[in-house]
Design goal:
Elements (H helix, E strand, L loop, with lengths): L11 H5 L10 H9 L18 H5 L20 H4 L4 E4 L6 E4 L8 H14 L1 E4 L6 H10 L2 E2 L15 E3 L1 H4 L27 E10 L7 E5 H6 L3 H7 L3 E10 L10 E8 L1 E3 L6 E3 L6 E4 L4 H17 L4 E4 L5 E6 L3 E5 L10 E8 L12 H5 L7
Parallel strand pairs: 2-3
Antiparallel strand pairs: 1-2, 3-14, 4-16, 5-16, 6-14, 6-16, 7-13, 7-15, 8-9, 8-12, 10-11
């Protein structure tokens, strides 16, 4: 019997030995790290030893953990936060708000709670001209929940949980091109395979291209509201299988080839701070609807993806400037990073993601438009 070919896996040497900075860390990032006291002597970024087996990754956080959404404690008027800002700009009617005149690292506890509620209501909130170290970024993230420490994603040395977002680094593993940009250049939401998936993510970009590199977000509240009441009844309470971005080997059957981490979560979930229903699917990582045949599941999911992705009135496209922060809620959004600059200029940032509650469906929860009193008679 011919031997079965196994997938090529990283060696211990490849995964443990530090790798020197051969890409050329953007100068703005280097200055930020040096000012923050980040030790770059062993190379950048820090690369953890990549896990090989499914059970090792499942066991990282395979238990229920307590979670209280800070937005649920906030003053609904958000006076402490909004009155301290010099300007509050709603970028579209349904999603996206920019706050001017505040430094994230200096927010009070009350303001952080109110920011949590604002993110829950507006899906993504932006702050330009920030001065924030990776350590301060992580500390702020901890206010919104347990920080996700990815088992194989590169991170800032000495600051676990601060993931490096550097397309040039990703391109060394999977080379992108104009027709297939890959990476984050697809509609997705983060960490859907977790037992308690991602809540608030904070991405700070210290280096951005002069043209392009925008990020788009779409509202899960509004995507759900785009569905007819009859169609909502069809998917309310249904569950789907969500998979990880990375595959691993089954320790008990390694010859079967790489497999993904999979979890079952509701298609429609309620947000604990607003109480509103949101559609929670994404084309990259939602595999199938539980209990349906593949053809049935594919048909429904394809339609739901299109509702999310093709309705431009429920999306916001944000043009970055240097030292800008975006904080978004993965429970109520999908996002997509444009690679139109094609790697001709550097783009670099650090990301901190807080894990939230175990997703749940609440039949009595209203839509956002119903809660705000703006729903029409057929909604």
């Amino acid at each position: 019997m011919a031997p079965v070919a196994l997938p090529i896996l990283p060696s211990i040497k490849d995964t443990v030995a530090p790798k020197k900075d051969t890409l050329g860390l953007p100068e703005a990032a280097r200055k930020r790290f040096e000012k923050a006291g980040i030790d770059l002597s062993a190379g950048y970024p820090y690369r953890p030893a990549k896990p090989i087996y499914l059970d090792d990754v499942y066991n990282v956080r395979d238990h229920d953990r307590p979670f209280t959404d800070p937005g649920s404690r906030a003053d609904p008027a958000k006076k402490a936060l909004l009155s301290a800002a010099t300007e509050v700009i709603h970028l579209t009617a349904h999603i996206g708000t920019e706050i001017k005149g505040l430094q994230l690292k200096d927010l009070t506890d009350q303001q952080k709670d109110e920011l949590g509620l604002l993110i829950a209501e507006r899906s993504v909130v932006f702050f330009r001209d920030q001065e924030i170290t990776p350590q301060e970024q992580k500390k702020l993230g901890e206010w919104f929940g347990e920080i996700e420490v990815h088992p194989q994603a590169p991170s800032v040395p000495g600051v676990p949980g601060t993931t490096v977002i550097w397309p040039a680094l990703q391109a060394t593993e999977v080379a992108p091109n104009f027709r297939n940009p890959g990476g984050a250049s697809r509609w997705h939401t983060d960490l859907v395979h977790e037992r308690q998936p991602a809540g608030v993510t904070h991405l700070f970009n210290d280096t951005i291209p002069s043209i392009g590199g925008d990020t788009l977000w779409a509202s899960g509240y509004a995507a759900y509201e785009k569905l007819s009441p009859g169609f909502r009844k069809l998917i309310d309470g249904k569950e789907a299988v969500y998979r990880s971005a990375h595959p691993y080997l089954d320790r008990n059957n390694p010859t079967a080839g790489p497999k993904y981490i999979e979890r079952v979560h509701p298609l429609v979930r309620a947000h604990p701070a607003t109480g509103w229903k949101a559609l929670w699917v994404n084309r990259a990582m939602t595999v199938r609807i539980a209990g349906l045949d593949k053809a049935e599941s594919d048909l429904i999911l394809g339609y739901l993806y299109d509702v999310y992705e093709r309705n431009v009135d429920i999306q916001v496209r944000f043009k970055w400037t240097q030292n800008t922060s975006a904080l978004w809620d993965n429970r109520i959004t999908i996002h997509n990073a444009s690679w139109d600059y094609e790697g001709n200029e550097p783009r670099h940032g650090t990301r901190v993601t807080a894990l939230a509650e175990k997703p749940y469906f609440d039949e009595k929860a209203p839509t956002r438009r119903q809660a705000l009193g703006i729903a029409g008679p057929d909604e």
